[in-house]
Amino acid sequence: MLKQFFITCSGADKTIIYSCSNGEQNKYAGIGATVFFTALLAWIAASYALYTVFDSIYTATFFGLIWGLLIFNLDRFIVSTIRKRDRFGQEFLQATPRIILAIIIAIVISKPLEIKIFEKEINAVLLKEKNAMAIANKKEVANFFQGDLDKNKAQTDSLKSDIVKKEKEVNDLYATYITEAEGTKGTLKMGKGPVYNEKRQKHDAALKELDALRKANLAKIAEKEKLGTTLQASLDKKVADTQPVIDGFDGLMARINALNKLPFLPSLFIMLLFLAIETSPIIAKLLSPKGEYDFKIEDGEAGIRTNLAQSNHQRELMRTTDAGIYDDVYAEIRNDRELYNYKKKKAIELLELQADRFSEKQKGAM
To answer: Do 105 and 278 form a contact (C-beta atoms < 8 A)?
Structure first.
């Protein structure tokens, strides 16, 4: 049962192969098994590759099955269309386009499986790339908001600086009228005289200005700090909103690029392995000598070519014979006087009708 299934996979003519020896049947069963397992690997590889795209095992399995059936049909077609020739050069020339197609199929099949085999290493590469992207994204978003943040901070610092300057001015005026009262500076007279009162009034006026300035600036500073908090929250929200995009940077193309950053040699060996598997049925047919099945196929094709040549020859003889007969018939008719007189009569009638029509047209034009 399994042998019959693999023979079907090889694309061999069942009527002919089952009339061959058991060894010949086993050879084509082996070729069919290679075709089947190559398609099976293609199904697995395509399913995994599509799973990284759709994130759905059922969708990936369904489309992977379609891809596997396509590869199965292509491999079966490639193997079944190779015919053994008397010269190896002719066989190789015939198989060259099929070998190229097999190489392309092998590369397509091996790449998703390479991604799965080196999944841990690829994840490490992707993690580094995601971290670098996250840092770059934070810098880019920070640069976008940095102008507003710097401007807001500068305005806040300016308001605070105004308060500090005014406080220093009030403190200096306070020290001035205190030292005047103590007699250590100014007029050097102890007591609260006119100069003391004048300096005290300047201090009190500056103190009122400080209170008004502090009240106004603190309100503005509160607004600026609120604005700064809002800007920082917007920055954090922008970073948080873009982070899922970075976290999702693990699709098929990203994994292929990450795979290309890994050492080339292990990936090359895996690709060569699948290349050997994919081309093995073709190589086996090229290297194997003509077998019983090939001779029977050649015998059937030779019989068809002979029958076709005979049929073409017979049709050509029929055509030339029939043409000769008609040549003789029309040669005899050409010498028949009765037919000649009849055609002459009809020609005269046509000429008379033509002359009458021409005469009527000329009269109508006058």
So the answer is: yes
The pLDDT tens digits of the residues spanning 248-296 come to: 677 777 887 888 888 878 878 877 877 777 777 777 777 777 778 778 8
Q: What is the four-CA torsion angle of 26, 27, 33, 36, rounded to 10 degrees? A: -130
Burial of 241 (C-beta count, 10 Å sphere; 0-12/13-18/19+): exposed
* Contact of 138 with 251, CB cutoff 8 Å: no
| Distance, CA of 273 to CA of 283 (rounded, Å) | 14
Residue bearing tokens 């901070």: 153
Question: What CA–CA distances, in Å, run from 168 to 179, 202, 208?
Answer: 16, 14, 14
Higher pLDDT pick, 306 / 225: 306
Nearest to 234 by CA among 159, 160, 152, 130: 152
Report residue 55 as tokens: 């994130």
Cα separation, 31 vs 35, in Å, equals 6
Distance CA 120, CA 266 (A): 14
Would you say how long the chain is, in residues? Answer: 366
Nearest to residue 295, comparing CAs of 95, 9, 86, 33?
A: 86
Q: Which of 136, 111, 134 is nearest to 258 (CA)?
A: 111
In angstroms, what is the C-alpha Rg of the chain? 50
- Contact call for residues 54 and 60 (beta carbons, < 8 A): yes
HSE toward the beta carbon, residue 269, CA cutoff 13 A? 5
Residue 10 near residue 80 (C-beta atoms within 8 A): yes
- DSSP designation for 192: -
d(CA 302, CA 118): 53
Tally DSSP H helices, then E strands, for the chain. 11, 0
